[in-house]
C-alpha cells in the first residue's frame, strides 16, 4: 500500500476501532513471555530472544518461552487481547527483579529493529541523565526508519523525566483508571507524556499460568501499542509523527 499523507482523523478513528493488527509486528522489550500461558494460546509468536551480559560481553541467545518475572507476560496478554492478529516478539532485557542494565536494553532495541519489528513496546523507564544518549541512538534510528516506539512513564509523577519516554519521537503513556479497555486519552498540552490508557487495577496474565491484579503505566503502554497496531494494520505506511498526531486527535481529552 502506497503512502498517503491525507489520512483523516475520522479514518484513523475507524482503524483504531476496527483494526486487528494483521501484518504488524510488535517487539516486547521486557522480562520474557510465557508463551504457554492460556491467555496467549492463540497468539502469533515471533522471536523469543534473551539478551544478557557474559563476562562483560553482550550476548543474545534463543529463549525457551519463559518469563523470569511475570511483567512481560502481562504486556503480551494486553497486546494480544486488543490486537489479536499482530505478531508478538519477546526480547528479554529485564531480569528476575524486573531490572536491567541500559546496555542490555539498547542492544535488545537494536536487535528488534534489525529484525524488522514495526512497534517497540517499552514498559520501563530509565532515570539517569547519562543514559540519554544511549537511548537516543536507537529511538532516533526507529524514527528515521519509520518505526514506532511506545514507552511507559514514571508511575509516581508522569512529569518526571524518564527515557525513552521523554524523547518527542516516542509515544509515552500514563495510567488511567477508566474503562473501556480500548479507550485512548490525551493529556492537556504542555507535557511530554501526551497519552493515557487503562492501567489501574488491571487483571493481567502472569508467569506460571497465573493471573494478577496490578497497577502501573507499564500496563497502559501496551494498550496504546495495540491500538497503534490496529491503525497500522489498515494504514501501514504512516510515519511516526503522523501516527502520534492522528492518535492525539482520536483520543479523549483528560481534565
Overall description:
Helix content is 29%, strand content 24%. It is of the alpha/beta class and 255 residues long. The chain has a single domain (9-253), classed as Rossmann fold. The strands form two sheets. A ten-stranded mixed beta sheet has the order 3-2-4-1-5-6-7-9-8-12, sandwiched between helices. A two-stranded antiparallel ribbon has the order 10-11. Strand 5, helix 4 (132-144) and strand 6 form a beta-alpha-beta unit.
Structurally, how many domains make up the residues?
Answer: 1
Radius of gyration: 17 Å
Instruction: Sum up the overall morphology in one term.
Output: globular
Mean pLDDT: 94
CATH architecture: 3-Layer(aba) Sandwich
Q: Percent of residues in beta strands?
A: 15-25%
- Uncertain stretches of 5 or more adjacent residues: none
How far apart are the first and last residues' alpha carbons, in Å? 38 Å
CATH domain fold name: Rossmann fold
Portion of residues in helices? 25-40%
- The helix tally amounts to 6
CATH fourth-tier homologous superfamily:
Peptidase S8/S53 domain
CATH class: Alpha Beta
Structural class of the helices, strands and pairings? Answer: alpha/beta
Give the beta-strand count.
12
Mind describing the biggest β-sheet? Answer: 10 strands, mixed
What's the SSE pattern? HEEEHEHEHEEEEEEHHE
Amino acid at each position: 500500500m502506497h503512502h498517503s499523507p491525507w489520512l483523516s482523523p475520522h479514518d484513523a478513528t475507524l482503524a483504531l476501532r476496527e483494526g486487528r493488527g494483521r501484518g504488524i509486528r510488535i517487539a516486547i522489550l521486557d522480562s520474557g513471555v510465557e508463551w504457554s500461558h492460556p491467555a496467549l494460546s492463540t497468539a502469533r509468536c515471533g522471536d523469543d530472544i534473551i539478551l544478557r551480559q557474559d563476562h562483560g560481553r553482550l550476548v543474545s541467545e534463543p529463549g525457551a518461552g519463559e518469563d523470569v518475572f511475570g511483567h512481560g507476560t502481562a504486556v503480551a496478554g494486553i497486546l494480544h487481547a486488543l490486537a489479536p492478529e499482530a505478531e508478538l516478539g519477546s526480547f528479554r532485557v529485564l531480569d528476575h527483579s524486573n531490572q536491567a542494565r541500559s546496555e542490555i536494553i539498547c542492544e535488545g532495541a537494536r536487535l528488534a529493529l534489525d529484525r524488522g519489528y514495526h512497534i517497540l513496546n517499552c514498559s520501563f523507564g530509565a532515570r539517569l541523565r547519562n543514559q540519554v544518549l544511549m537511548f537516543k541512538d536507537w529511538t532516533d534510528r526507529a524514527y528515521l526508519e519509520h518505526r514506532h516506539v511506545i514507552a511507559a512513564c514514571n508511575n509516581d509523577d508522569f512529569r518526571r523525566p524518564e527515557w525513552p519516554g521523554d524523547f518527542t519521537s516516542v509515544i509515552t503513556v500514563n495510567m488511567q483508571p477508566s474503562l473501556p479497555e480500548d479507550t485512548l486519552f490525551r493529556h492537556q498540552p504542555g507535557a511530554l507524556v501526551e497519552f493515557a490508557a487503562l492501567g489501574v487495577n488491571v487483571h493481567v496474565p502472569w508467569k506460571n499460568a497465573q493471573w494478577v491484579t496490578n497497577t502501573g503505566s507499564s500496563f497502559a503502554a501496551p494498550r496504546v501499542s495495540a491500538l497503534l497496531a490496529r491503525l497500522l494494520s489498515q494504514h501501514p505506511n504512516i510515519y511516526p509523527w503522523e501516527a502520534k498526531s492522528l492518535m492525539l486527535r482520536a483520543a479523549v481529552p483528560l481534565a
